[in-house]
Amino acid sequence: MQRFSDLAESVSEIAIPGNQIVMVSEKKVLVVGAGLAGLAAACALRKNGFDVSVLEAAAHPGGRVVRKVVDAFQIDLGANLFLETFATANQLADQLGVPLRRTPVPINSGIYRNGRFYGLYGDNRPSSLWKTARTMLSFQLLSPKGMWQVAKFARMLQARKDDLSFDDHSRMLDLDTDESATEFFESKIGTDCLEWLFGPGLSGYTFAHPEQVGAAYAMATLWHFGMNGVAWPVLPEGGMGAFVDALVEACGSSLRLSTPVRRIVLENGAAKGVVTDAGFVEANAVICATTASVALDIAPDLPLAVRDTLRRVTYSKCCRVFFGLDSSPFPPDWYAVSFPRQTGALVTGMSNAAVLAPQTVPKGTALIDALVIDQQAEELFSLSDEKILERVLSEVVRYVPKMSREPLFTHVHRWPEAMCLSPGGTMTALYRTRQEGLGGIGGLLLAGDYMGMPSANAALRSGLDAADAAAEYLL
Ligand SMILES: Cc1cc2nc3c(=O)[nH]c(=O)nc-3n(C[C@H](O)[C@H](O)[C@H](O)COP(=O)(O)OP(=O)(O)OC[C@H]3O[C@@H](n4cnc5c(N)ncnc54)[C@H](O)[C@@H]3O)c2cc1C
């Protein structure tokens, strides 16, 4: 059978060995959750002739990819970019007819220390290299010891670069020990450069700190989001929301919004269907494409070992405060500024979406996103939007004096489950669980970013893999 990775032309019959013809449209597959994983699975199955329904709890599809439009600003409240190295996302975008465009400029940013910002430049011009070296000097990363450690880390990444894949993470599982990234790097390269080198890069992407993730996860993230120098961000013309629109269109009429699944029903070691508020819905296979925490809630009959593995998955928390502005408060060619943990700042970083995606905001304006993560985000969750705004803005103007106190608009978004973190050893445990067929449960597949190297790309990949596995089971 053709793998869905290739998204074959629509068929209503599929030949299986022995010349028997199966009417695949008679096989009902239920997909729980219309995030990227669920939508990718549904559109692949539908394209191959299966009878698919996607049951989504929320009133909108996309999960952690959410678009909000304010005036002429299109705001990606969740994921906002792919990388050129995300093979699954790039291929799927191509097949869906969604052109991805490279961000127009290299990613330059500033890092805060002792009352000022030091620049980190994403291009290879001699002046930029010199300015970046000066930044590293001022952070003592180029002290003889720090330099040795940075070089050692760079050698480690270079040696494993082909394994650090967001599409197939199976080759980096030997790096996924039970240690946290902090413990792993402390023992392998030393402690001097650790926080200054790994902190801002990791925190900006994962909304967490190096002690909260495993080493393989941290290495792949740092390699693709900064240190390989070639992984350019790419995004659809209309922002990530446009990609979700295309997936939804490809799913046709199979999507049911505002339909939370209360329980996945397993009987005699196989999936039989799901329970919704309207009653029992029968199916030949079920793909659970929610977060791991929801999967634990709605599939209480999963084998104990599978449940134990799912319990290891954690998620970061973040609060994003968006400001529409007439102009950017950063130097003209900067995308972002970051505040390492040692500064004690409430905000971990600020970025200007207009630099990455100028087409999503009115010409000449800026869309600033101030990010608060982890415990500090959790503390904000209980406050009203007005209070959060007040606290964040009063902090931001202390560090970035050019920040306007009278933005065009503001928007506060809370993410109690933001990025999947995969603490050390979790990716390996999940990989084994999948290889072992969820402890022998037939017709139940798990999909979601947590099944791979957490990202929008892994979510899509896991959806296509689950579609393949469901089809294999049904045929
Ligand atoms: C702020 C933020 C920024 C990010 N930035 C990036 C980025 O730039 N690049 C990148 O690659 N990744 C990024 N990510 C991560 C990326 O968004 C996720 O990895 C990806 O979207 C996860 O997709 P998913 O389908 O696995 O899960 P989800 O998107 O969480 O989808 C799960 C779906 O299941 C639904 N659901 C839950 N319970 C039920 C139920 N009982 N019944 C039915 N449906 C249910 C949910 O409503 C949701 O729609 C970011 C994430 C966040 C939060």
Write up this protein.
With 475 residues, the protein is an alpha+beta fold. It has 3 domains: 157 residues, FAD/NAD(P)-binding domain (3-Layer(bba) Sandwich); 126 residues, Alpha-Beta Complex (Polyamine Oxidase, Chain A, domain 2); 119 residues, no CATH class. Helix content is 37%, strand content 21%. The chain is built from 16 helices and 22 strands. The strands form 6 sheets. Strands 10-9-18-19-20-17-21 form a 7-stranded mixed sheet, with helices on both faces. The protein has a 5-stranded parallel sheet with strand order 12-4-3-16-22, with helices on one face. A hairpin with a 2-residue loop joins strand 14 and strand 15. The relative contact order is 0.19. About 4% of the residues have low confidence. The chain binds flavin-adenine dinucleotide (FAD). The site of flavin-adenine dinucleotide has 36 residues, from helix 1, helix 9 and helix 16.
